[in-house]
Amino acid sequence: MIKIAFSPCPNDTFIFHAWVHGLIPGAPKLEVTYADIDITNNLAAGLKGPDIIKISYAALPWVLSQYDLLPCGGALGRGCGPLVLTSKAVDAAEKPGLLSGRSVAVPSERSTAYLLFRLWAAQNVPGGVGQIKVLPFHEIMPAVRDGLVDAGLVIHEARFTYPSYGLKLLVDLGSWWESDTNLPIPLGAIVARKNENLQAIATGFEPR
């Protein structure tokens, strides 16, 4: 039995659907943990994390002593990056100073989204932002809508659903990253624990 953890977002559940539901002949059975991205990033950094785990690429520096990056299944893309949202429309001239000293909700301090946000803010927010509050990604938009934070950094399907919360786009960090680097966004990675038995378990053979 292989222990695996990933978020319940559509992207992750699609990637692992066939394996989780026994649709791959001969594949070992899985013990699945569904968890928010902040939890999976921190699980991988702990001493007793699962065998295989989907994490943010930005979390790799914390986990590579215990995990290997797999060369498949990761999420890289264009036009699919994180968004910074506010509860009111913002004039373009106001954008640079809007977040100065303000509170911002983020999905994980080890997420790719937060790394992109910090890089963008260093160039575009005079004096820096104020309080950073980590919330599960599905709680961020309600927190911005209800005025609990001044802005929110959102990922996953929130790219498409934020208008239903009455929120406004401040910046598309994916578009900013692509225009700045001309590279796709490195979003999520799949890592496997450094374990001499794991490859044997996964392929159905006993170690020699």
Protein described:
The chain has 208 residues and is of the alpha/beta class. It has two domains: 2-77 and 186-203, 3-Layer(aba) Sandwich (D-Maltodextrin-Binding Protein, domain 2); 83-183, Periplasmic binding protein-like II (D-Maltodextrin-Binding Protein, domain 2). Helices cover 33% and strands 24% of the residues. It is built from nine helices and eleven strands. It has helices at residues 10-20, 37-45, 60-63, 95-98, 112-124, 137-145, 158-161, 173-181, 198-203; strands spanning 2-6, 30-34, 52-56, 67-69, 75-77, 83-86, 104-106, 132-134, 151-154, 168-172, 185-193. Strands 1, 2, 3, 4, 5 and 11 form a six-stranded mixed sheet that branches. The chain has a five-stranded mixed sheet with strand order 8-7-9-6-10, sandwiched between helices. Strand 7, helix 5 and strand 8 (132-134) form a beta-alpha-beta unit. Helix 5 crosses helix 8. The relative contact order is 0.21. The model has no long low-confidence stretch (mean pLDDT 88).
What's the structural blueprint in terms of helices and strands?
Blueprint: E1 2-6, H1 10-20, E2 30-34, H2 37-45, E3 52-56, H3 60-63, E4 67-69, E5 75-77, E6 83-86, H4 95-98, E7 104-106, H5 112-124, E8 132-134, H6 137-145, E9 151-154, H7 158-161, E10 168-172, H8 173-181, E11 185-193, H9 198-203
Parallel strand pairs: 1-2, 1-3, 7-8, 7-9
Antiparallel strand pairs: 3-11, 4-11, 5-11, 6-9, 6-10
Helix pairs in contact: 5-8
Strand content: 15-25%
What's the overall average pLDDT, rounded? 88
Helical proportion?
A: 25-40%
Structural class: alpha/beta
Distance between the termini: 19 Å
Question: How many individual domains?
Answer: 2
Overall geometry: elongated
Would you tell me which CATH topology of the largest domain applies? D-Maltodextrin-Binding Protein, domain 2
**What is the ordering of alpha helices and beta strands?**
EHEHEHEEEHEHEHEHEHEH
Named CATH architecture of the largest domain = 3-Layer(aba) Sandwich
- Give the CATH class of the largest domain: Alpha Beta
Question: Would you identify the regions where 5 or more consecutive residues have pLDDT less than 50?
Answer: none
Beta strands, count? 11
Count the DSSP helices: 9
In CATH terms, the superfamily of the largest domain is Periplasmic binding protein-like II
